Amino acid sequence: GTQLPLDRFLSFYYAHPGFHLNNLFIQLSLQMFMLTLVNMSALANQSILCIYNKYKPITDVLYPLGCYNFMPVIDWVRRYTLSIFIVFFIAFIPIVVQELIERGIWKATQRFFRHLLSLSPMFEVFTGQIYSASLLSDLTIGGARYI
């Protein structure tokens, strides 16, 4: 049999169900962010944007008349996207520090860039997507199988 009960399915690759739920929520939040980003981009592209000054009160009249105040939303998207990249590079700190302590700065730098050039972070994203898709299909349809 290739059928697994849910508890055995969740502990097949890693020992904790929270790992799989975390992958699922990460994928769902990224999909929601991309959907929001596409809608906001389309809306901002087709709208008349206001001249924005963050130091003015929000009760002031916005110019030009009939405009939409999307600049705070655009600023939020920029901050959110920047925070994703910051967290991405924070994830490399343990491996770089370990390599730095054991072998020195040259080998740590070399390993960091080799890690990036090999596109192994993309593989981790791919495996996370596979894990979350299999968990989602098991929760909606049932019948978990070995991947």
How would you write the strand order of the largest sheet? 1-2
Q: What's the story with the biggest beta sheet?
A: 2 strands, antiparallel
Mean pLDDT: 84
The run of helices and strands is EHHHHHHE
Please tally the β strands and state the result: 2
Number of helices: 6
So what's the overall shape? Answer: flat
Low confidence ranges: none
- The helical percent reads 55-70%
Class inferred from helices and paired strands? mainly alpha
Rg is: 22 Å
Strand content: under 5%
Compute the separation of the termini in Å. Answer: 13 Å
Number of domains: 1
Task: Give the arrangement of secondary structure elements.
Blueprint lengths: L2 E2 L1 H5 L6 H29 L25 H20 L2 H11 L1 H13 L2 H21 L3 E2 L2
Folded structure, characterized:
The chain has six helices and two strands, in the order E-H-H-H-H-H-H-E. The protein has a two-stranded antiparallel ribbon. The longest helix has 29 residues, at about 15-45. With about 150 residues, the chain is mainly α. The model has no long low-confidence stretch (mean pLDDT about 85). It is flat. Helix 2 crosses helix 6 and helix 4 (about 95-105) runs antiparallel to helix 5. Helices cover about 65% and strands about 5% of the residues. It has one domain. It starts with a strand and ends with a strand.
